[in-house]
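writing this on my phone so excuse typos. first protein, seq and then structure
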Amino acid sequence: MKKIKTEDAVGMILFHDITKIVPGGFKGRAFKKGHLIKQEDVQELLSLGKDHIYVWEDIEGFLHENDAAIRLKNLACGEGIVFGEIKEGKIDFIAEHDGLLKIDSEELLNLNMIDEIMMATLHDNTYVKKGEKLGGTRVIPLVIDEKKIIQAEDTIKNKIVRVVKVNPKKVGIVTTGNEVFYGRIKDAFGSVIREKAAEYGCEVLGQKILPDDLDKIKSAIMEFINEGAELIMCTGGMSVDPDDLTPSAIKATGAEIITYGSPVLPGAMFLLAYNGDIPIMGLPGCVMHSKRTVLDLVLPRVLSGERITKRDIAIYGQGGLCLNCEVCTFPHCSFGKY
């Protein structure tokens, strides 16, 4: 770039955006990069404190901040993302559709370890809505040595940011407990689960309410699977009392138990298993009365097609404490973030 006096800049091309700030009022772009400077612009530029102007001189081996940002976003961004207008060398990442935000944290760290480059995002596994801002990237200087961008392109092997569509599933609800089956108390799980499922467009095939009988619980799970259920949610009988049989019944279907217990509050007594490719969840009592629980963390990941592992659940220990805020802002809070 070349530095010249503003009075001598008429007819030249601005090298970078110029920002105007009015305290308590306006902050934004007064002149856009690439603007052809006219005589009438000179006085306003001077009023913005621009006694000198930088104009672009194409130098081999160096990139303008905008060109570098474009290469970074092409390198880092995968499916489900659209982009905002480049402003002052920064590009925002925007969700193209509703879905689960996936961040490759290691690759993001690798990119940010390269000098003069930055990228910031929301947390991994955040459920996002269409049009929501996910992150952004830019280079720090106005001009960067192209070798830094080439280093990034050689270093980053996987897309850092993606939005994966969440696919609705057919859900079967199995509720156990003599107290509910015999009408001593009213079931409170069914309506909550239907509401949670509806958030993602899932179809609830039905709810089977059963006594504390292992064989009947097992049979109900298998009946739903045979009816085409793609996700089973079991409620009741999930504590450690001797007559709580739901975990044993799930195991008796031949399902692989991934975890019985999670480092999440509310949600410590959560169970996750797979019967083939069909996920089976054992939901703790907190799902009935707490606004957000372990179910809100795991459900969108399951619906995205991800097969959850024991490690995936264990990682929730950091960030697994819900603060039960008076005004809930989930998913834009610390719950489930690590």
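second protein below, same order as before
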Amino acid sequence: MKKREKLAIIQKWYPKAITTIDSVNKIIDFVEWELDLEPKQVMLADSICSDDVNSIQYPVRTQEFLGPFKMGGLDGFPFTGLTGMGAFASHVPDEGAVFIYYGPHIGVTKDGKLGEIHRSGQNKNSGCCGAAKGALGKLIDNQITAGHITELDYQMNTIEQILYQEKERVLSSPTPIFEATEVIYEAIDKRIGELIEKTQYKCKYVILLGAILINSDGDMGSFTEIRRFEVIDLSTNEHHNYLNRLD
């Protein structure tokens, strides 16, 4: 299947999606041309779901960066918290940058079904993100209690609480799994901002890329709809929006 045919399927749900490989290529070009840095001067941290499909579909070219430092747990929420952010901030080259790639993921099959993918070796589709679908199912069935977070299933309970706080918005949507993913993205974006605000960096830049990561069947690959592309110049604390550079 040609790239344009794959994009046509994904873009029915995410009109601004591009292949994840193309997104990485654009970012590396930006780092080299706009920031005048080499990828090996950039420490990558990602806050994406720990689902194995994300490792399988992780673009090889990201290996040109240092890292990655893994911040994300279920559906990409940055569960390593302030300690994790501080840890990788201390690993970055002094004259370099930190690059934080974050967001939830969702599946789109090659026949356009949202919230599922066909995984290698399986006879049937399976949920993607499974945690988001599970939390949504409990939300629909009124099985989530406000404030209920346990030690045994802390990450899943946190995802449940994120959706519970936006229960009416999610359940009134014509496509609840789509809206649930939007809600989770907003929660991750907010938490990343809080962690950055409380972290000291000794490098030149903080690069932020917030996105919806879209997985698909094994022969389709993955796609990215970028929602935020921002550079913080740490010498001036100025925030620069470069989202249009990735169009």
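Residues 3-127+181-245 form one domain. thats all i got for now
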